């Protein structure tokens, strides 16, 4: 899992190729749905979510709206609907902080990743 997360960080961080970022975000979503707690714990760390994903939201990257919505949807769904063995406090704190700053998160219909499936304690989609 560490190598996979490292590769995803590299693909997303500072990448101005929006198609690569878009595909990397889809891959993160697929992995979160299908991988276990070891992968989840690496992705939901503040270092990954704040230092990689939220940087793409900054104006300097000029990310298209669908990419911004995808990132916001991932953060929102991880913070509000994940039920499993992984500590989500970093993502939950970031989500609350972003909402407090006035960021508007997409509704479930606007999120480009479709509906989030909660993960059970066994790490499998429910």
Automatic annotation (TrEMBL):
MF terms (GO), sorted A to Z: clathrin binding; phosphatidylinositol binding; ubiquitin binding
InterPro entries: ENTH_VHS (IPR008942), VHS_dom (IPR002014)
Annotated region described as Disordered, given as residue ranges: 106-126
Compositional bias (Polar residues): 109-126
Domain of life: Eukaryota
GO BP, one annotated term: signal transduction
GO cellular component, one term: membrane
Pfam family name, one: VHS
Name the record gives this protein: VHS domain-containing protein
The organism of origin for this protein: Chiloscyllium punctatum
Organismal lineage: Eukaryota, Metazoa, Chordata, Craniata, Vertebrata
